Amino acid sequence: MKAVELNEVDQETQLMTRETQKNGCVKVTVPENAGVKYTGLSKDELMKITSTAGWVQTRRALLALFLLGWARLMMVSVQYFLFLSFSVGVEEKLDYLTQMKVKGLILGPIHTVQEDQLDTLDLVSVKSAVGTENDLKSLLDQAHKKGIPIVLNLTPSYDTASVWFNNVTAVAEKIKDACTHWLRKGFGGVFLPDLRDIMTTKSWPSIQAIFNKTEETKQVALMGSVTSLSADEVSLVLNRSGVDLLLTGLPDPAETGVTKKLYSSHLQTSLGWSLSGRTLGSLASRTPAAPIRLYQMLLFTLPGTPVFSAGDEVGLKAGEKPQIMWDLENPAEEKNATAKTLREERIAVRDFFKALSDLRGKERSLLHGEYVSLHSSATSLAFLRLWDQSERFLTAMNWGNDPVTMILSNSDLPAQAQVRLTTDAANLAVDSMVSLEKLQLGPKQAVLLSYPYAG
C-alpha cells in the first residue's frame, strides 16, 4: 500500500484564511504576544520518548482515527452529486455519467409503498416497476468499478406531501433496518429527507451508530435534507444530526451574508446546495426564470457540494422525458429545424456544465477555497474563491433584465483577469483578458474569471 504523507492530506482538508498564516504545509496561528519562549525537547529527548511503547500505541491509534475520518470525508467531498431514478438501462449509462464527471449518485427511491398506507411500506425490497435485485446488484458492481459511489434515497412516502406518513416514530424503526440491509448490499450511503423530524426520534442514535461502525460500513455516508430554514436553523440541524452531508435549498444569491455565515462554522463538505428536486422541479423550470447556465455556474463555484437532478445538465424542463439526455448524440431524425436547434442548444448547455465540472475537479480554489464577497445586489453577485497559492477564481453574474457595472475591490485582485467560462462570448470571449476595476455584464449573463496567485 502506498504511504500517504500527512501534510498532503492537510492541504486538502484545511481551510486557509487570512487570519491564519502558513508555514510550509501546516496551518499555524501566530499570536501577537508570544510571551515566554518555549525551546521544546532536544532531538535525543524526543527520540527517546517517541520510542516508548505507550507513545507508539498512541500514534497508531491517532493515525487510525485520522484515516477513518479522512475516508468518511472523501466519501462526500466530491465534485457533485446527481439525483437519478433507478430503472433498467441505467447501468448502460454509466459511461455517460463518467464523461460528465459525476462523482456520486443518489439513486431511487426503489422500494414499494402505497399512498398514505404505512402498513404497505417495504423499504428492503425493489419494486418490480424499476427492475430486480439482480439489476440493482449489477449496477452497484459496475458503478463501483468506475469509482462512482451510489447513495440510496430512502424517502419513505415519495409521492405524497407527508414523507413520514405523519408517524415518523414508526417509520424510523423501519429506516434503521433498511439502512443495515442496503449498506450490506453495497450502497455507499443513505439519503433521508426532512431530517428535522427523524433526528428527534429515539431511533436516531441507533441509525447514526450504523454509519459509525468501522468495519462493516467503511466509507459510507449518512445524508439528509432540510428545507425552508434560516442559516442558524441549518447550522443547528447539522450539528445535532451528525450527518456527513446536509442538503438544503440554496439561499437567495443576493444574501451573501447567509452563505458566509453558514461556512464560518462548518466544513465546506458538510453542506450541499440544490436548486432542483422533488418539490422544486427541474433547474430549467425555476421561477423566476434565468438561463440555466447561470444556475449551473453558481452551484459549481460556491463553496460546498452541489447537487443536481438528472436532466439539469442538459436543461430538461418539468415533464420532459429523461431519455432525452441519453439520446442527444444519436437522436432520431429531426422532422423540422426547431427540433434540431433545440438539440444543439441542449448539447451546448451540457458542454458548459461539463466544463464547469472539469474545472471544479482540478482547481483547489473551487473545491476547498475561501469565499470572499465582492459585490451583491438584488439582481447581481460577484465573489472570489481563494486557496493558498493556487489559481484564484472570480464568479460574476447578472440575472436581472438590465446591464450592470460592478465596482470590485479587494487586496488580492489584479488589474485584469482571464475569462475561463462565459455566457456572453460576444463581449467576454474565452481566454480574453478583462479589466476588474469596472466589470460590465449584460442582462442574464455570467462569467467565470481566473488569475494567478501573486504573493
Topology:
Blueprint: H1 6-13, E1 21-23, E2 26-28, H2 43-50, H3 53-76, E3 81-84, H4 94-99, E4 105-107, E5 112-114, E6 117-122, H5 133-145, E7 150-153, H6 168-185, E8 189-192, H7 195-198, H8 204-212, E9 221-226, H9 231-241, E10 245-249, H10 256-263, E11 271-274, H11 292-301, E12 305-309, H12 323-326, H13 337-362, H14 364-368, E13 370-376, E14 380-386, E15 392-398, E16 404-406, E17 416-422, E18 433-435, E19 439-441, E20 445-451
Parallel strand pairs: 3-4, 3-12, 4-7, 7-8, 8-9, 9-10, 10-11, 11-12
Antiparallel strand pairs: 1-2, 5-6, 13-14, 14-15, 15-20, 16-19, 17-18, 17-20
Write a compact overview of the structure shown.
By secondary structure, the chain is α/β, with parallel strands linked by helices. It has 14 helices and 20 strands. Helix 6 runs parallel beside helix 8, helix 9 runs parallel beside helix 10 and helix 11 runs parallel beside helix 13.
Task: Record keyword descriptors for this entry.
Zgc:158423; 6-stranded antiparallel sheet; 8-stranded parallel β-barrel; L-leucine transmembrane transporter activity; 3 domains; 455 residues; Immunoglobulin-like; transmembrane helix; transmembrane; alpha/beta; TIM Barrel; disordered N terminus; single chain; 34% helix
Descriptive report:
One of its GO terms (cellular component) is basolateral plasma membrane. Residues 81-350 form the Glycosyl hydrolase family 13 catalytic domain. The protein is an alpha/beta fold. The chain folds into three domains: 40-76; 77-362, Glycosidases (TIM Barrel, Alpha-Beta Barrel); 367-451, Immunoglobulin-like. The model is unreliable at 1-38 and 58-77 (pLDDT under 50). Helix 9 (231-241) links the parallel strand 9 and strand 10. The chain has helices at 6-13, 43-50, 53-76, 94-99, 133-145, 168-185, 195-198, 204-212, 231-241, 256-263, 292-301, 323-326, 337-362, 364-368; strands spanning 21-23, 26-28, 81-84, 105-107, 112-114, 117-122, 150-153, 189-192, 221-226, 245-249, 271-274, 305-309, 370-376, 380-386, 392-398, 404-406, 416-422, 433-435, 439-441, 445-451. The protein starts with 5 loop residues before the first helix and ends with a strand.
